[in-house]
Each structure stands twice: as C-alpha cells, then as structure tokens.
C-alpha cells in the first residue's frame, strides 16, 4: 500500500499550506465511503477528497469533478450541519501512524465558538472517517460499528479512542537498543521485521531502507549490519519527515500505474516513472488512473460475461437446430410410407395389425416393406399421418437451416467483439463495444439516460494508426463500427484491406495513395491483423488481403461483416506484442 505514514507526513505539510485558514464552502458525499470538502482560501476553492474505501483509502486535493447523488446521504447531511462555514485551523498526524486529524473552528447555534475534528484513519479495510466534538465524543462516522460488532464501538455519543492495534514503535523516536531487540530471535526478513515493529512503515519504504543500507546478507546477527539498517532508516526519515526533501514519483508498467512514493525509490528503478512538483498532484494522478483501471477491468469483465452468455445461448440453439435437421432425415421415409399405403390401399383391405406389409414400388426388385400403423386409424388416416409428419419435419428442417445461418452470423459477430475486447486498452474501446451490443439488443438500454448517451458519444475512440517501415499509413479498427467506417467510408477503392482468414478480428487498411505497396508493408499490416484477432500469439496465421473495391457489405448484416473476392493470402506468425511498430498517438 503506497499510502503509509511517511507519505501521510509529507502530505500533511502540503495540506497545511493549501488549506489552513480556509473556509468550508460545500460538502458532498459522492459514494458510500467518500466525502469531498470544498475549502475556500485566498480567492480559490480547493477540493479535498477523503475516502475510506476499503481497497483504496486516501486523502488529497484534486480539481477533478465527480457526479454527486441528488439526495445527500445521512453522514453528508451531518457534516454539512456541523462544518459548513467552519474555518479549518489545523491538521495533525498521530506520530507516524496513518491517522490524520483536521481541526475546525465553528459557531454554535448561540454564536459561541466551538472546535470540532474530522479524524481520518487510513487502515485498509478498517479505514473510517469520524466527526467528533471538542471532547472527542463521536458525532457520527461514515462507518458505524456497534458494541456487538467490535470491542471499539463507533457510534454517535461514544468517546473516540485510538485503534487498539497501535502498539508499534514510532520509527523517529525508536532507540538503537530497541531497534536491535527487534532482530533478536527473529527468522523473518529484515523488511518484515521493520514493518512488524515500526509504525507508518510500508513494505516499499522498508525495502528502500534495506537497499540503501546495502544489506544483502541473510544472517542479521552482526551488529554492524543492524547499525547500517538503523542509520539508513534514520537518514531517510530525517530527509523526508524533518527536512521535507521529497520528490513525488509515480511508477507505471505497460501503461498502468503500479505505485507512487514521496521519493524516487531505488527498489523501483526498473519501472518507468514520472516526477511531480507536488505530492498532491502525484497522488491525484495515481488514484485517478487507478480508478480508471478498476472501472476498465469491471467494464471489460461485464462485457465479457455478456458476450460469453450470448455465445453459450446461441451455441445451445445451434445444437438444437442441428438435432432438428438430423430428425428430418426420416422425412423422406415418412412420405414414402404414405405413398406406399395409398398405392396398395385397395390390395390391403381392412387391417387391425400394428403394421402392414406392402410392395415397395421404390425398390428395384419390388420387394415388400413393413410399415408401422396406428390401430385406431384406418389406412387413409395412417397415410395422412405420415404426410403430416413429412411436412412437419421438412418445415422444421427449412426453419432450422435458416436459423443456423442466422446463428452463425450472430456467433461470428460476437466472436469478433470477443477478439476486439481482448485487445481493448482504453475505456473508450469498451464503450464502443458496449454500444454495438446495445444496438444489436444484447444489452438492455432502457435505463440509459440522455446524459450517459451524450458522454458515450463524446468518448468515441479513434482507430489505431501505425506508420509502416516504408512510410505507409496503416489503420486498425478497435471495434466493428470502426471496422465498417474504415472499410466502407474512410478507405479509397485502391487502398488495401486485410483480415485474418475465417478468424474474428479487426479490419486493417493500408493507405496506398495510388502507390505500389512494398512487401515489407504488407507483412507488417498482416502482422497487425493477426495481432488484433482471435489468432493472437499463434503461428502460421492466414491473412487475406485485397483492394478495398473488392470488399462489399451485404444489406442488413451486422457491423463488421463483409464479403470479398480477388484476394491473396499471407501466412504470418502473430507477434507477442506490437512495441516495435511505429504507432501514431
């Protein structure tokens, strides 16, 4: 967890500079765990986010806006009643613990000056936000706990107390003798020894302490080694906490945020990084991207579930229709039975048997054949029954074949979306796929309001754009709507169109500008077509290519579906990644 006591200590100084002596103008609670305080100071309004989210507890200043509920939750109403118009007069930290106390000066109903505190505990899943009075009596908390639920009840009227687990030593105050005692009779790693015994120390900070102490030995019995760790700890804390020497740094991997810290960590030297002029800006970007990624993953999982459920449903329907076609194999036999009964009608006479044996006029040797009968029906009625069975099975077969053709088109559409979903990297890609599913009726759109629709329209993504090694523009659709746009509207008739052969994937366009396209560009475009398809990471992937003028879209077909002719095929091994391709941002 990046938000440890050391980070909080550095952040506290920025919050003091930005917020102290400011006035609370507005208060909102956008969700179950988060409150937003708008603080007015020196002609500017600063938005302070305090979130007790169990997975992402945090506090920082941001300019980003969120949608607030029309009806404010209970806790928000209590905060408004007690803190609106209040002056923020102090921000304090409990040692190096992840506990921050914000002091407000308010006026009572009688006009008397009162002090109230907003206490924020960043304790993982136990994180909480408390509003207490000057005597530390709880006015309310964003998460209440009864006497039955916890040995530390959190209820209005109860005295606020610090969490009972705060038994670790303050690393700023710990002596060397106390520090040595942590290492005695311990088989744990030095990093774990630090985090287990010192408050406000995260795994990242502990790793940095050990790395800067240049400790690589497994045995920690040598006092000199422990002294090096102790000195490294004290030096880091002095620079960060006492002197305020920080360099807020954000670490990423493959475009996703990994971590942040108040200094540039040596233990993260292999990660791409970005430095910030303030810790608030660093934290703001980290949690914004973290939330974006969480939303992205949840949206992708939802869409994947929708697609998989519909593929499963269609597959079952496909099997049912195959079974109907197999059953219709007996249809010609039933018609034959009807014909033979009528052909032999006057030779048979009346019968009460379960079957009748007649001459088979369809056989070359005119042999006899036994035809099953229903005793309660005469011969004409049995013949009519067989004709009805024949007609029923033939109609079912005809309907099943038509259904199978439609099912195959739907499966091809869904599988193409599934391939595109696997390659989606941005929330805009997912919104486009969701839009396709909505238009085709796979997702219920009744609950979608005009504002959400407008947001989607504003967030439409652009196709991937690459430059080949020969300087030709190559475009790749991110979704089926883009595939149609690229092929049918964007590309000219002499541009080259590529697609994996009989494999769901993206449409790829090479802009030729009426020039001859070199083989190297064709291969690069084919590699992109294989990468943005269900054949990713496969070998010997067939990719068809032809001029756009030979690509047609049949009427009333689903997005992305086309037919083509006059094509050639390239066989390529799909790349593991496309890092070496020249992508235009």
TrEMBL record:
GO terms for cellular component: RQC complex. Key component of the ribosome quality control system (RQC), a ribosome-associated complex that mediates the extraction of incompletely synthesized nascent chains from stalled ribosomes and their subsequent degradation. RqcH recruits Ala-charged tRNA, and with RqcP directs the elongation of stalled nascent chains on 50S ribosomal subunits, leading to non-templated C-terminal alanine extensions (Ala tail). The Ala tail promotes nascent chain degradation. May add between 1 and at least 8 Ala residues. Binds to stalled 50S ribosomal subunits. InterPro entries: NFACT_RNA-bd (IPR008532), RQC_Subunit_NEMF (IPR051608), RqcH_bacterial (IPR043682). The keyword Ribonucleoprotein does not apply. This is Rqc2 homolog RqcH. Pfam families: NFACT-R_1 (PF05670), NFACT_N (PF05833). GO terms for biological process: rescue of stalled ribosome. Associates with stalled 50S ribosomal subunits. Binds to RqcP. It comes from the Bacteria.
């Amino acid at each position: 967890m990046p938000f440890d006591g050391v980070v909080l200590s550095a952040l506290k100084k920025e919050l003091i500079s930005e917020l102290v002596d400011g006035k609370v103008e507005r208060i909102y609670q956008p969700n179950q765990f988060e409150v937003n305080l708008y603080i007015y100071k020196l002609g500017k309004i600063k938005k302070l986010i305090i979130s007790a989210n169990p997975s992402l507890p945090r506090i920082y200043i941001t300019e980003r806006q969120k949608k607030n509920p029309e009806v404010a939750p209970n806790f928000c109403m209590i905060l408004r009643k007690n803190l609106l118009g209040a002056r923020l007069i102090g921000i304090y930290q409990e040692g190096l613990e992840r506990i921050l106390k914000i002091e407000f000066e308010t006026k009572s109903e009688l006009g008397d000056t009162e002090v109230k505190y907003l206490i924020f505990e960043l304790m993982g899943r136990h994180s909480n936000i408390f509003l207490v009075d000057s005597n530390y009596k709880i006015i309310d908390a964003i998460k209440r706990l009864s006497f039955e639920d916890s040995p530390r009840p959190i209820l209005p009227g109860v005295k606020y107390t610090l969490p009972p687990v705060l038994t670790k030593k303050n690393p700023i105050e710990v002596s060397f003798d106390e520090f040595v005692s942590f290492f005695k009779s311990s088989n744990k790693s030095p990093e774990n020894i630090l985090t287990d015994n010192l408050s406000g120390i995260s795994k990242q900070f502990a790793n940095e302490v050990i790395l800067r102490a240049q400790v690589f030995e497994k045995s920690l019995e040598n006092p000199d080694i422990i002294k090096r760790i102790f000195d490294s700890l004290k030096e880091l804390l002095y620079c960060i906490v006492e002197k305020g020497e920080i360099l807020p740094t954000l670490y990423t991997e493959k475009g996703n945020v990994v971590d942040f810290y108040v200094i540039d960590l040596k233990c993260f030297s292999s990660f791409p990084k970005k430095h910030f002029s303030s810790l608030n800006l660093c934290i703001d970007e980290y949690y914004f991207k973290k939330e974006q990624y969480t939303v992205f993953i949840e949206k992708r999982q939802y869409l994947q579930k929708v697609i998989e459920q519909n593929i499963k449903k269609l597959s079952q329907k496909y099997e049912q229709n195959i079974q109907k076609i197999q059953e219709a194999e007996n249809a010609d036999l039933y018609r034959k039975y009807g014909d033979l009964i009528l052909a032999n009608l006057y030779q048979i006479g009346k019968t009460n048997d379960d079957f009748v044996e007649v001459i088979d006029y369809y056989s070359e040797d005119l042999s006899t054949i036994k035809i099953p009968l229903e005793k309660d029906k005469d011969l004409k009625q049995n013949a009519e029954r067989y004709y009805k069975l024949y007609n029923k099975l033939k109609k079912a077969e005809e309907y099943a074949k038509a259904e199978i053709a439609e099912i195959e088109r739907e499966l091809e559409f869904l599988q193409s979306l599934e391939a595109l979903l696997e390659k989606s990297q941005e929330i805009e890609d997912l919104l486009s796929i969701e839009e396709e599913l909505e238009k085709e009726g796979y997702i219920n759109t009744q609950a979608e309001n005009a504002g959400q629709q407008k947001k989607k329209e504003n967030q439409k993504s652009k196709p991937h754009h690459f430059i080949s090694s020969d300087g030709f523009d190559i475009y790749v659709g991110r979704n089926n709507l883009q595939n149609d746009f690229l092929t049918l509207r964007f590309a000219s008739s002499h541009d080259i169109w590529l697609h994996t052969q009989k494999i769901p994937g993206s449409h790829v366009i090479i802009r030729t500008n009426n020039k001859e396209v070199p083989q190297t560009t064709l291969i690069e475009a084919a590699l992109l077509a294989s990468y943005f398809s269900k054949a990713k990471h496969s070998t010997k992937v067939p990719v068809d290519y032809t001029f756009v003028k030979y690509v047609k879209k049949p009427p009333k077909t689903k997005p992305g579906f086309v037919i083509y002719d006059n094509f050639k095929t390239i066989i390529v091994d799909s790349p593991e990644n496309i890092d070496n391709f020249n992508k235009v941002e």
